[in-house]
Fold this sequence. Notes:
By secondary structure, the chain is of the alpha/beta class. The chain has two domains: about 5-140, 3-Layer(aba) Sandwich (Rossmann fold), CATH 3.40.50; about 155-210, Winged helix-like DNA-binding domain superfamily/Winged helix DNA-binding domain (Arc Repressor Mutant, subunit A, Orthogonal Bundle). Helices cover about 50% and strands about 15% of the residues. Strands 2-1-3-4-5-6 form a six-stranded parallel sheet, sandwiched between helices. It is elongated and about 60 Å long. It starts with a strand and ends with a helix.
Amino acid sequence: MTAVRVVAVDDHPVFLRGLVACLEDAPDVEIAGLAADGEAALDVIAATDPDVVLLDLNLPRLDGIGVLERLRATGTDVPVLMLTMYEDERGLRAAFDAGARGYLLKGSEQAAILAALRTVVEGGVVVGKELADRLTSLLGGTSVPVGLRRVADLSERETEILSLIAAGRSNTEIVHELVVSANTVRNHITRIFAKLGVANRIEATARARELGL
């Protein structure tokens, strides 16, 4: 039996040690690498070419969503299973929008984590039982809030952030609402301004209204 090679990423040393112990208990799982922040995770993934990545959502330097976005932008199609404490639909939606194949809560049983790893490696989609009722709406094509559509050549996430800017939300409020890092929001806003040809939030808001947001 070929072992499933896993890269595990978490910034809490105690949790990461427990996760390693969980994985090492399985005869068909091999730990390919470990990382404690998003930037290190990208380096480890590139160096080890794992079968699957276990990824926390809240990480220093580059959060889990940022890691996912960078992987997909570079054409790295490794399956990613999020293992996080965020139980709300925003984190779930952000993860699947960015390309995650699974989403489990920290505290999930060992058997559930191992089964989820095998499922995503085989091409399936997994979500923890606590959030299972919310997955249907995401897979049903409602990952963008009702009434929000893509505009210009913005991505769905960029359209969502532009809509929040137009609604008067600050960067800090956007960070909390979308469950992403401040750096991720700043990067999105930079790309939004460049694509719309605007220089500041006032111009972006005016352009958003012109586009019907």
